[in-house]
Write a structure and sequence with these properties.
11 helices; binds phosphoenolpyruvate; about 15% strand; TIM Barrel; 8 strands
Length: about 250
C-alpha cells in the first residue's frame, strides 16, 4: 500500500502575507486529515512564512527548485543547505515550466536529483510529454528517456525517498486533464523504468503523482486509480478551500 502524497505547486504566486493568509485558512480545513501526506511548495520568499505557519501541523513545506552546487558564485540560485536550514523537506525538480523557460534538461534534472538526495530532501521529479509527442505516439519513449536520464548513476538505496510526478505538459494549466486510464498507463511506464533502474521492489514502492489541471471536481476519479499515488496541483492549490477539497477528495 503506497501512502498518497498531495502537493501544491504555487509557482510564482503569493507574497509572504498572502502565504500567511493561505495557511490561516487552510490548516483548520485539513487538521484532522491523516490519510495522505500534504506538501505545499511556495516561492522562495514565502517559504519562511510557510514553514512557521505550518510548524506542528500535518503539512510539510517544499521548494520549487534548487541548484546542485554546494555554494559559490551562482547569482540568483539557492542550494540544498539553504533549503534545509529554513525547514524545507521536499523539492520539486524538473518541472516542465523550468524545462520550457529556463533551459532545464534531463541532465540538469539528474544533477539536481543527486543533490537533493544527498541533502536528505524528498525530491519530486517531474516528467511528461508535450502534445506533439503524445500525438506522434512518442509518450512511452519520452517518459522512458526522461526517467532513465534523471536516474542516471543514482542507487536504489540513495533514491529511497524519490517521488515522481507524471505531468503531461498539455494538461498543465490548460483545464485539460488526462483521463485516469491515460495517467495510469503513463504511470505504468514510469514504474517499469524505475524497475529497470532500481529494481522491482523499489518500483513497487515508488510513489508516482499525477499533475495537470487537478481540481476538486476530478480529484476523486483520478485518485481512485490504483496506479496514481497522489497529485501535484498548480492553479487549484492557490485557494485554501479548493486545495483542501482536493486533499480530502
Ligand atoms: C503544476 O504546476 O505542476 C500543475 C500541475 O499545474 P495545474 O494544476 O495548474 O495544471
Amino acid at each position: 500500500m503506497r501512502n498518497k502524497l498531495i502537493a501544491a505547486n504555487w509557482k510564482m504566486y503569493k507574497t509572504p502575507d498572502e502565504a500567511r493568509d493561505f495557511f490561516r485558512d487552510f490548516l483548520p480545513l485539513v487538521k484532522d486529515h491523516d490519510r495522505d501526506e500534504i506538501v505545499v511548495c511556495p516561492n522562495y520568499l514565502a517559504i519562511d512564512v510557510a514553514v512557521h505557519a505550518a510548524k506542528g501541523s500535518n503539512v510539510a513545506i517544499g521548494a520549487q527548485n534548487l541548484f546542485w552546487e554546494k555554494e559559490g558564485a551562482y547569482t540568483g540560485e539557492i542550494c540544498t543547505s539553504m533549503l534545509v536550514a529554513v525547514g524545507v523537506t521536499h523539492v520539486i525538480i524538473g518541472h516542465s515550466e523550468r524545462r520550457q523557460y529556463f533551459g532545464e534538461t534531463d541532465d540538469t534534472v539528474n544533477l539536481k536529483l543527486k543533490s537533493a538526495l544527498a541533502a536528505g530532501l524528498i525530491p519530486i521529479v517531474c516528467v511528461g510529454e508535450v502534445l506533439e509527442e503524445r500525438e506522434a505516439g512518442l509518450t512511452d519513449d519520452v517518459l522512458r528517456r526522461q526517467c532513465l536520464r534523471a536516474f542516471n548513476k543514482v542507487s536504489a538505496k540513495k533514491a529511497a525517498s524519490l517521488v515522481v510526478a507524471y505531468e503531461p505538459v498539455w494538461a498543465i494549466g490548460t483545464g485539460k486533464t488526462a483521463t485516469p486510464q491515460m495517467a495510469a498507463d503513463a504511470h505504468a511506464i514510469i514504474r517499469a523504468e524505475a524497475a529497470e533502474s532500481f529494481g522491482q521492489e523499489f518500483a513497487d514502492k515508488l510513489r508516482i503523482l499525477y499533475g495537470g489541471s487537478v481540481k476538486p471536481e476530478n480529484a476523486k476519479s483520478l485518485m481512485s486509480e490504483a496506479e496514481i499515488d497522489g497529485a501535484l496541483v498548480g492553479g487549484a492549490s492557490l485557494d485554501p478551500k479548493s486545495f483542501a477539497a482536493i486533499v480530502k477528495y
